[in-house]
Design brief:
- Pfam families: GGDEF (PF00990).
- Residues 190-324 form the GGDEF domain.
- The strands form three sheets. This protein has a six-stranded antiparallel β-sheet. It has a five-stranded mixed β-sheet with strand order 8-9-7-12-13, sandwiched between helices.
- Strand 1 (18-21) and strand 2 form a beta hairpin.
- The chain has helices at residues 5-14, 32-36, 48-51, 63-67, 109-116, 129-137, 141-163, 175-188, 202-209, 211-227, 253-267, 297-313, 330-333; strands spanning 18-21, 27-30, 52-56, 73-78, 85-92, 99-104, 192-200, 234-237, 242-248, 271-273, 276-278, 281-288, 319-321.
- The protein starts with a helix and ends with a helix.
- Helix 9 (202-209) runs antiparallel to helix 10.
- It has 337 residues and is α+β, with helices and mostly antiparallel strands.
């Protein structure tokens, strides 16, 4: 039934921007509107992840990790020009025979209409986008204002991305970016938290299974942290297996402790790589900004580091908040990774 021509015709009608994937991640069928976006390139037969780039969740580069996003909102774009932004959701097909990905334009619909000369016939009859298309065709002042605003937002997003500093392996911010964002946060806010996360037993993975396995673990860790944080939060890889999370506007200890607990629990789950099992855990330390007092970034990072090593010394896989009583000498802080 899934692969029948009749079923394909139904999909063409009700979701004309769908993609049907096989078990290897190759596209079996695509909706007519989606194919219209790339008329010179026949999409069926190509790998989904070679045509589309996932912006969120990040670091998705194989079918297995793509399948793990089932039910979650996907943010993606074309890898070639024009790099139209898309939203999507993936649903596994029965008996693990692949997946169905339904795509839409989201707020980029106005640009899509302009770039690809789309009409109401290119959307499902029940899609509210059709109502917007009538406004576009009439060139109403309201739609023109929305288009202008959308272009400005895209320009601002591109400018922000150009200024961002990214860790090439994980797709997270790097240390330089975190320092910049932390300084900016200190200058404008007195309510935030800095969480320092360090992986336990990561060196064992590298030593026994090799650096490729270690890289795979780091990519997995990045995905977990992105999934457990808000879009407004900042996640950075600041060392080999050390990460810093910045929660602007959040100081509730119960909420922060629940976030840390979820991170620890998820990172204790086995991670599979080429038939091998990688096992790690995470120790976490958190420092809170002081209301009405601009504490230096180096002090906050030091406090989070002190809390982190207290968690390691307490047996690993734990979360501690900074307290002055945790201060200790450099010799006492040394814990084998």
């Amino acid at each position: 039934m899934i692969s029948s021509p009749e079923f394909a015709k139904i999909l063409d009608c009700i979701c004309p921007m769908y993609v049907m994937l096989d078990e290897t991640g190759h596209m079996l069928r695509v909706g007519p509107t989606l194919q219209k976006l790339r008329p010179q390139s026949l999409m069926p037969g190509q790998r989904f992840l070679e045509v589309f780039e996932l912006n969120r969740p990040r670091s998705i580069d194989r079918m297995e990790t793509l399948m793990s996003t089932a039910g979650a909102k996907l943010h993606l774009c074309f890898r070639d020009q024009p790099r139209t932004s898309l939203k999507g959701v993936l649903v596994p097909l029965p008996e693990e025979k692949g997946a169905l990905v339904n795509l839409s334009f989201g707020i980029s619909v106005l640009d899509a209409v302009r770039d690809y000369a789309l009409t109401s016939a290119d959307f499902s009859a029940t899609d509210l986008t059709i109502e917007l298309l009538y406004l576009v065709e009439a060139k109403s002042a309201a739609m023109e204002a929305s288009r202008t605003l959308n272009l400005r937002l895209q320009d601002a997003m591109i400018a922000a991305e150009e200024q961002a500093f990214t860790d090439t392996l994980t797709g997270l911010k790097n240390r330089r970016a975190m320092d910049h964002i932390l300084d900016r946060t200190i200058s404008k806010s007195n309510c935030f938290a800095v969480m320092n996360l360090d992986l336990d037993y990561f060196k064992t993975v590298n030593d026994t299974l090799g650096h490729a396995a270690g890289d795979h673990v780091l990519e997995h860790v990045a995905q977990v942290m992105i999934a457990e944080t808000r879009q407004s939060d900042t996640v950075a890889r600041v060392g080999g297996d050390e990460f810093v999370l910045l929660f602007d506007g959040l100081q509730d200890r119960d909420i922060l402790d629940r976030i840390a607990s979820r991170l620890i629990n998820q990172l204790e789950e086995p991670i599979f790589f080429n038939g091998q099992v990688c096992r790690i855990s995470a120790s976490i330390g958190t420092a809170l900004s002081v209301p009405d007092q601009k504490t230096e970034a180096a002090v906050l990072l030091h406090q989070a580091d002190v809390a982190l090593y207290a968690a390691k010394n307490a047996g690993r896989a734990q979360h501690f908040f900074y307290d002055p009583s945790l201060e200790e000498t450099e010799e006492q802080k040394t814990v084998a990774n």
